[in-house]
Amino acid sequence: MRMRFLAPVVMSVVLLASCGGGSENKTEKKEESAATSETPVDNSMVTPGAAEAAASKGAALIEQKDCKTCHKPDTKLIGPGYKEVAQKYEATDANIDKLADKIIAGGSGNWGEVAMTPHADLAKDDAKEMVKYILSLK
Protein backbone atom coordinates (compact mmCIF):
# COMPACT_ATOMS: atom_id res chain seq x y z
CA MET A 1 0.00 0.00 0.00
CA ARG A 2 2.76 2.40 0.91
CA MET A 3 4.53 1.83 -2.45
CA ARG A 4 1.36 2.61 -4.39
CA PHE A 5 1.09 5.92 -2.59
CA LEU A 6 4.81 6.75 -2.74
CA ALA A 7 5.32 6.24 -6.50
CA PRO A 8 2.75 8.87 -7.63
CA VAL A 9 4.03 11.34 -5.04
CA VAL A 10 7.64 10.91 -6.19
CA MET A 11 6.61 11.25 -9.84
CA SER A 12 4.62 14.40 -9.05
CA VAL A 13 7.59 15.94 -7.21
CA VAL A 14 9.95 15.10 -10.07
CA LEU A 15 7.52 16.53 -12.61
CA LEU A 16 7.03 19.75 -10.65
CA ALA A 17 10.75 20.11 -10.05
CA SER A 18 11.52 19.76 -13.73
CA CYS A 19 8.95 22.42 -14.61
CA GLY A 20 9.72 24.80 -11.75
CA GLY A 21 11.96 27.83 -11.93
CA GLY A 22 11.39 28.39 -15.62
CA SER A 23 9.53 31.67 -15.18
CA GLU A 24 12.63 33.43 -13.82
CA ASN A 25 14.75 32.36 -16.79
CA LYS A 26 12.05 33.38 -19.26
CA THR A 27 11.85 36.83 -17.69
CA GLU A 28 15.62 37.22 -17.79
CA LYS A 29 15.73 36.05 -21.41
CA LYS A 30 12.95 38.46 -22.39
CA GLU A 31 14.78 41.35 -20.70
CA GLU A 32 18.07 40.31 -22.33
CA SER A 33 16.37 40.00 -25.71
CA ALA A 34 14.80 43.42 -25.36
CA ALA A 35 18.13 44.92 -24.39
CA THR A 36 19.96 43.39 -27.34
CA SER A 37 17.29 44.38 -29.84
CA GLU A 38 17.62 48.03 -28.84
CA THR A 39 21.41 48.06 -29.13
CA PRO A 40 22.57 49.81 -32.31
CA VAL A 41 24.51 47.58 -34.69
CA ASP A 42 27.80 48.69 -36.20
CA ASN A 43 27.76 47.46 -39.81
CA SER A 44 31.04 49.10 -40.76
CA MET A 45 32.83 45.74 -40.89
CA VAL A 46 30.10 44.00 -42.90
CA THR A 47 30.57 43.70 -46.62
CA PRO A 48 28.07 45.74 -48.64
CA GLY A 49 24.84 43.87 -49.16
CA ALA A 50 25.64 41.04 -46.73
CA ALA A 51 23.19 42.21 -44.09
CA GLU A 52 20.43 42.60 -46.68
CA ALA A 53 21.26 39.23 -48.23
CA ALA A 54 21.10 37.45 -44.88
CA ALA A 55 17.63 38.81 -44.22
CA SER A 56 16.30 38.41 -47.73
CA LYS A 57 13.21 36.60 -48.84
CA GLY A 58 15.43 34.16 -50.72
CA ALA A 59 17.22 33.09 -47.54
CA ALA A 60 13.89 32.53 -45.82
CA LEU A 61 12.62 30.44 -48.74
CA ILE A 62 15.77 28.31 -48.69
CA GLU A 63 15.22 27.68 -44.98
CA GLN A 64 11.63 26.56 -45.66
CA LYS A 65 12.48 24.21 -48.52
CA ASP A 66 14.59 21.04 -48.62
CA CYS A 67 17.69 22.80 -50.03
CA LYS A 68 19.82 22.12 -46.94
CA THR A 69 19.51 18.40 -47.59
CA CYS A 70 21.96 18.68 -50.49
CA HIS A 71 23.52 22.16 -50.23
CA LYS A 72 25.51 24.15 -47.68
CA PRO A 73 26.69 27.75 -47.96
CA ASP A 74 30.43 27.08 -47.92
CA THR A 75 30.97 23.44 -48.78
CA LYS A 76 29.90 20.85 -51.34
CA LEU A 77 27.55 18.30 -49.84
CA ILE A 78 25.60 16.35 -52.47
CA GLY A 79 25.23 19.44 -54.61
CA PRO A 80 27.52 22.46 -54.83
CA GLY A 81 27.88 24.96 -52.03
CA TYR A 82 26.01 28.23 -52.54
CA LYS A 83 29.24 30.23 -52.66
CA GLU A 84 30.58 27.93 -55.37
CA VAL A 85 27.47 28.62 -57.45
CA ALA A 86 27.86 32.36 -56.79
CA GLN A 87 31.45 32.22 -58.03
CA LYS A 88 30.45 30.45 -61.24
CA TYR A 89 27.51 32.69 -62.19
CA GLU A 90 27.28 36.48 -62.39
CA ALA A 91 24.07 37.97 -60.99
CA THR A 92 22.57 38.80 -64.40
CA ASP A 93 18.87 38.56 -65.25
CA ALA A 94 19.65 35.75 -67.70
CA ASN A 95 21.55 33.70 -65.11
CA ILE A 96 18.91 34.32 -62.43
CA ASP A 97 16.22 33.14 -64.84
CA LYS A 98 18.29 30.10 -65.93
CA LEU A 99 19.07 29.01 -62.37
CA ALA A 100 15.48 29.57 -61.21
CA ASP A 101 14.32 27.28 -64.02
CA LYS A 102 16.93 24.70 -62.93
CA ILE A 103 15.63 24.77 -59.34
CA ILE A 104 12.08 24.22 -60.55
CA ALA A 105 12.88 21.55 -63.19
CA GLY A 106 15.75 19.81 -61.39
CA GLY A 107 18.20 17.71 -63.37
CA SER A 108 21.89 16.91 -63.59
CA GLY A 109 24.93 17.74 -65.66
CA ASN A 110 25.98 21.15 -64.38
CA TRP A 111 27.66 19.96 -61.15
CA GLY A 112 28.04 16.25 -61.73
CA GLU A 113 25.80 13.33 -62.43
CA VAL A 114 23.69 13.43 -59.26
CA ALA A 115 20.36 14.94 -60.26
CA MET A 116 18.81 17.78 -58.29
CA THR A 117 15.25 17.05 -57.22
CA PRO A 118 12.65 19.07 -59.13
CA HIS A 119 10.65 21.66 -57.19
CA ALA A 120 7.66 21.96 -59.52
CA ASP A 121 5.47 23.45 -56.78
CA LEU A 122 7.83 26.42 -56.35
CA ALA A 123 6.71 29.68 -57.95
CA LYS A 124 9.18 31.13 -60.46
CA ASP A 125 9.38 34.43 -58.55
CA ASP A 126 10.26 32.55 -55.35
CA ALA A 127 12.92 30.55 -57.19
CA LYS A 128 14.37 33.82 -58.51
CA GLU A 129 14.52 35.24 -54.96
CA MET A 130 16.41 32.13 -53.85
CA VAL A 131 18.87 32.50 -56.74
CA LYS A 132 19.39 36.20 -55.99
CA TYR A 133 20.25 35.32 -52.41
CA ILE A 134 22.67 32.56 -53.47
CA LEU A 135 24.40 34.79 -56.01
CA SER A 136 24.81 37.52 -53.36
CA LEU A 137 27.07 35.20 -51.32
CA LYS A 138 30.26 35.90 -53.30
From TrEMBL:
Residues 34-45 have a biased composition (Polar residues). Residues 21-45 are annotated as: Disordered. Heme c binds at C67, H71, M116. It holds the Pfam family Cytochrom_C. InterPro entries: Cyt_c-like_dom, Cyt_c-like_dom_sf, Cyt_c_ID. Residues 1-17 form the signal peptide. It comes from the Bacteria. Binds 1 heme c group covalently per subunit. Keywords: Electron transport, Heme, Iron, Metal-binding, Signal, Transport. Residues 53-138 form the Cytochrome c domain. GO terms for molecular function: electron transfer activity; heme binding; iron ion binding. PROSITE patterns: CYTC, PROKAR_LIPOPROTEIN. This is C-type cytochrome.
